[in-house]
User: Fold ParB/Sulfiredoxin domain-containing protein from Microbispora triticiradicis.
Amino acid sequence: MMTEVETFRLMGWTWDVSAAKKYAASRHPGGHLRPRHWAGLLALIDIDQVHAELVDLGEPLIAVPASPRGGPLVIDGWHRIARALREGVAELPVILLSKEEEYACRIHGGSRCYGWA
Assistant:
């Protein structure tokens, strides 16, 4: 039986979310993100509204460093962000992967150097 790999694609970039979840599995959230700060990107994300109603807002988002300064990009949790925005939830827990983990999870995009640099 073949296991389906969950991926996240944003423009010309793709990450293996299944691999990211393995890195994040043994960790506790290291902080919180404010869904309202991410609302503008939702226009680029395909959100299944029915699925969004079923997600657990307590499950941490997974983010990766997206710049040389380490600013995050959410690669898992967009349905939670959409639901949190609808419900007025101010913060969601997040696990930030390291630059090395981001590189290991990235399938396509950039020069395949750490982060997006």
Q: What stands out?
A: Residues 7-105 form one domain.
